[in-house]
Write a structure and sequence with these properties.
2 helices; rod-shaped; 58 residues; mainly alpha
């Protein structure tokens, strides 16, 4: 009985360690990305591709 609990505990710790490593790795990759251009709002729909740019009537 104790051996089964120990096996379940080891498996749970292993999965938790894998998840933690994945989160740390993803955070590291996010921090290494190129910084956005100064003066450009990254949330604008045209920049993100959510809305296609259109010609403005003059």
């Amino acid at each position: 009985m104790l051996a089964r609990i120990w096996d379940v505990l080891k498996a749970t710790l292993a999965v938790a360690a894998l998840i933690a490593a994945a989160l740390v790795s993803a955070d590291k990759l996010d921090r290494q990305r190129a910084q956005p251009v100064i003066g450009v709002v990254a949330g604008e729909p045209v920049i993100t591709g959510a809305i296609a740019p259109t010609a403005r009537p003059e």
